[in-house]
Amino acid sequence: MVTINHVYIFIAMVIGGVFVEGLVTSFYYRIFKSEYKRHHFNIGRYVFLLLLPLIGTLFLGQQIGFSILKIFAIFALVGTALEWLIGFSYEYIAKVLAN
Fold this sequence. Notes:
The chain crosses the membrane at residues 6-31, 43-61, 67-86. Keywords: Membrane, Transmembrane, Transmembrane helix. By secondary structure, this protein is mostly helical. The protein has 2 domains: 1-66, no CATH class; 68-99. 83% of the residues lie in helices and 0% in strands. It is built from 3 helices and no strands. It has helices at 4-32, 43-64, 68-98. It is flat.
């Protein structure tokens, strides 16, 4: 059974991942005195961004007893739909503002 505490832990892990990325970027700037290039694909950054959500998914799957494949499929479908919706909205707004 999913309790609200499980949801809070999962959300905290996802937000924690974003916070940790900010800290790592800040340390990178302090050490190398230049901004981290974000416009190029970097497999390390990709893995880093997925690490805490993946750990959260594994934790939640273990706690509530769903198979990890079901949880993965749900998040993959919802994430893809949200990403498409955000991209579509951005393109639509850019097109409207350009006219």
